[in-house]
């Protein structure tokens, strides 16, 4: 009897140990989400120069391979990237934050899709003297943010010095922003200073010039191709002169009655333009031959060394992305007449909200119309899939969303179906018939396009597609003149991948998004 009792006791003990082990394993499984949440909450960081955003400590899997495994179910190619945001919305907040932090890594005080995810995370602005100065040495670039940005009356452009910020008389409301170098592409001030000096030499004699033509294409396509010509000219040491031909986007209206060229809206790009046109012979004019475009290697020879101490990924497409953003910023400096027109327009057709920097939460560009001949159009409500992710990031539903589109029905759908957000737009004429329809109203459409551009680059987040030339232009200008380098862009259309790190984790043959190269 005692022997049987001993066996029974042993059996009970074994079963007890087994049950305890099973309980421990079960507890470990169900507790993983709570442990993950604990790590995320305990590792929330806020940099003094950066908007709050959850940062996850990847010490448990601090290699790219580990992150690839963790996010594996979302590291697949999508025909349209709106689908990714739809799938991501089903995850908890912790997963969403850590996924976005991986796609757009933070290095120092900046977060960017350009950054290499294998960096050491210790980047800081090296030149302290430059970091204490205003981001842009040229007062005209600040006009996108504030109309109250001008040159001090005691100075003129002929005596402009980049060593003394007292030449600038800027809006005091934006004082801290305009000195915040973490809000723009690394080394923006240095690049813009070099570019201004290159285009505006002390003497115009004995310089190399090349004249860049401007085409009658869609506005975004024109700006992209002009910028690529500009980049090629810079690489070869030329001062760029913009051709003063009549332009479809300055046609059929009173605003451009006295100047039907590019300069109806924007500032002159060189102080040597008049000298160039006074030369009787020896002019150089750059044209694209058919569909032959410059390769992405046509950026300044010194650019890789210039950016080597930054976290920006070193490859031709990333270098071209950087250079094009800087060229757009210089080319598209609104002149005083355009600035006044935009300010007057706002007075007569107000959005009834504060439109200063970051006061509007989201800018959304819905590209429809004739673009369907070049790419698969993204349905209007697919843009909202990205909007839902931003609501999760901001932890609130009622976002203000500024919408730009040539499609009246897109705005109508958003107003009727997105009830938890405030949809904003200007009451402008909209032409969904494409470029041919624009030719009859070019001047007016350029003016309202600039209004749309100003609101889009001021808003905190941006939803769109870089396969749209206008969307590409907005995205690049937000990196510089918009002071939104570290704020997220949500691609909803077609592309290989969304960022340098995304391309790496997906093991894509293309090392950067397709839209960064020549297309």
UniProtKB/TrEMBL annotation:
GO molecular function: alpha-(1->6)-fucosyltransferase activity
Record's keyword terms, sorted: Membrane, Transmembrane, Transmembrane helix
Transmembrane residue ranges: 12-41
InterPro entries, per the entry: Fut8_N_cat
Keyword Transmembrane helix (UniProt): yes
Domain Alpha-(1,6)-fucosyltransferase N- and catalytic: 175-424
Entry-linked Pfam families: FUT8_N_cat (PF19745)
GO BP terms: protein N-linked glycosylation
Entries under PANTHER family matching the protein: ALPHA- 1,6 -FUCOSYLTRANSFERASE, ALPHA-(1,6)-FUCOSYLTRANSFERASE
Protein name: Alpha-(1,6)-fucosyltransferase N- and catalytic domain-containing protein
């Amino acid at each position: 009897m005692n022997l049987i009792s001993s066996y029974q006791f042993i059996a009970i003990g074994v079963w007890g140990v087994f049950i305890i082990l099973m309980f421990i394993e079960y507890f470990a499984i169900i507790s993983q989400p709570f442990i993950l949440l604990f790590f995320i909450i305990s590792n929330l960081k806020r940099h003094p120069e950066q908007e709050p955003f959850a940062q996850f400590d990847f010490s448990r899997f601090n290699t790219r391979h580990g992150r690839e495994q963790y996010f594996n179910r979302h590291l697949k190619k999508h025909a349209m990237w709106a689908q990714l945001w739809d799938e991501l919305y089903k995850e908890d907040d912790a997963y969403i934050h850590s996924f976005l932090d991986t796609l757009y890594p933070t290095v120092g005080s900046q977060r960017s899709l350009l950054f290499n995810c294998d960096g050491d995370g210790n980047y800081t602005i090296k030149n302290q003297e430059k970091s204490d100065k205003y981001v842009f040495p040229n007062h005209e670039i600040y006009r996108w943010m504030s109309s109250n940005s001008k040159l001090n009356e005691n100075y003129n452009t002929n005596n402009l010095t980049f060593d003394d910020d007292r030449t600038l008389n800027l809006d005091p409301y934006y004082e801290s922003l305009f000195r915040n170098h973490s809000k723009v592409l690394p080394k923006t001030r240095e690049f813009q200073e070099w570019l201004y000096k290159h285009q505006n030499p002390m003497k115009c004699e004995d310089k190399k010039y090349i004249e860049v033509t401007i085409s009658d294409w869609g506005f975004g396509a024109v700006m992209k191709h002009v910028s690529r010509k500009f980049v090629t000219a810079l690489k070869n040491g030329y001062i760029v002169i913009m051709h003063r031909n009549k332009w479809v986007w300055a046609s059929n209206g009173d605003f451009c009655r006295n100047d039907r060229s590019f300069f109806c809206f924007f500032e002159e790009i060189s102080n040597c333009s008049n000298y160039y046109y006074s030369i009787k012979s020896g002019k150089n004019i750059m044209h694209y031959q058919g569909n032959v475009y410059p390769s992405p290697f046509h950026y300044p020879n010194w650019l890789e060394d210039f950016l080597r101490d930054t976290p920006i990924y070193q490859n031709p497409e990333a270098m071209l992305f950087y250079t094009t953003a800087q060229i757009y910023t210089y080319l598209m400096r609104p002149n005083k007449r355009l600035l006044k027109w935009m300010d007057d327009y706002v007075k007569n057709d107000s959005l009834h909200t504060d439109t200063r920097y970051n006061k509007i939460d989201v800018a959304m560009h819905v590209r429809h119309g004739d673009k369907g001949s070049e790419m698969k159009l993204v349905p209007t409500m697919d843009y909202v899939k990205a909007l839902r992710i931003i609501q999760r990031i901001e932890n609130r539903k009622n976002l203000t969303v500024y919408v730009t589109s040539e499609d009246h029905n897109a705005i109508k759908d958003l107003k009727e179906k997105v009830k938890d957000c405030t949809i904003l737009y200007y009451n402008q004429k909209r032409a969904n018939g494409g470029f041919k329809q624009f030719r009859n109203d070019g001047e007016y459409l350029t003016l309202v396009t600039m209004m749309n551009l100003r609101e889009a680059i001021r808003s905190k987040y941006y939803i769109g597609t870089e396969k749209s030339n206008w969307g590409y232009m907005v995205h690049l200008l937000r990196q510089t003149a918009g002071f939104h380098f570290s704020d997220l862009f949500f691609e909803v259309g077609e592309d290989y991948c969304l960022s340098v790190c995304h391309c790496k984790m997906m093991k894509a043959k293309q090392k950067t998004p397709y839209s960064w190269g020549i297309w």
